[in-house]
Amino acid sequence: MSDFPVTIYHNPRCGTSRNTLAMIRASGVEPTVVEYLKTGWTKAQIKDLAAAAGAPVRDLLRAKEPLVAELKLDGPEVTDDALLAAMVEHPILVNRPIVVTPKGTRLCRPSEVVLDLLETPPESFTKEDGEVVTAAR
Questions:
Q1: pTM for this one?
Q2: How far apart are CA 64 and CA 96, in angstroms?
Q3: How far apart are CA 6 and CA 10, in angstroms?
Q4: Which residue, of 13, 62, 75, 93, is most buried by count of CB atoms within 10 Å of its CB?
Q5: Distance from C-alpha of 92 to C-alpha of 77, rounded to nearest angstrom
Q6: Which three-class secondary structure state does DSSP give residue 73?
Q7: In this structure, how many other beta carbons lie within 10 angstroms of the beta carbon of residue 128?
Q8: Which of 4, 15, 25, 5 is nearest to 97 (CA)?
């Protein structure tokens, strides 16, 4: 196993998250897996991950989650503070998976985005649905 540090904020019920985790492991790395639905979030964690990814907080909001509409979080007038408070209260609102490596921090949607963050990505990988992805060399 590699010493290349990788952390994945993971939801095991999500196919994209499972594929991303499997790609990381296929690269020879056993990552730190944070099941955020169990551990929860802090505002600082979400803000720091968004900043590290170079993305606004809103980009980490799982827009397809029905709770977003129910809580009226989908409007442009909703502040980052309101989004952060909702994400802390309802961890399912954070999009996944988020991966952190020495090469950067990214929301890995689609899952093959993770290949750019790995030290030695697998040459090819077959996702759960049978799609084969290859690492750009």
A1: 0.94
A2: 12
A3: 12
A4: 93
A5: 21
A6: coil
A7: 11
A8: 15
The answer for residues whose C-beta is within 8 angstroms of residue 123's C-beta and 6 or more apart is: 134, 135
In degrees, rounded to 5, the angle at the alpha carbon of residue 13 between the alpha carbons of residues 73 and 66 is 25
Could you report the per-residue pLDDT of 12-71, keeping only the tens digit for each? 999 999 999 999 999 999 999 999 999 999 999 999 999 999 999 999 999 999 999 999
Q: With beta carbons less than 8 A apart as the criterion, state whether 61 and 94 touch.
A: yes
Look up 108 and say whether it is catalytic.
no
Query: 23 vs 36, 49, 60, 67, CA distance in Å?
Result: 19, 21, 21, 30
**111/16 Cα distance (integer angstroms):** 5
* Among 107, 106, 58, CA closest to 83: 58
Amino acid at 99: V
What pairs with residue 126 in β-bridges?
132
Residue of 6, 14, 49, 84 marked active site: 14
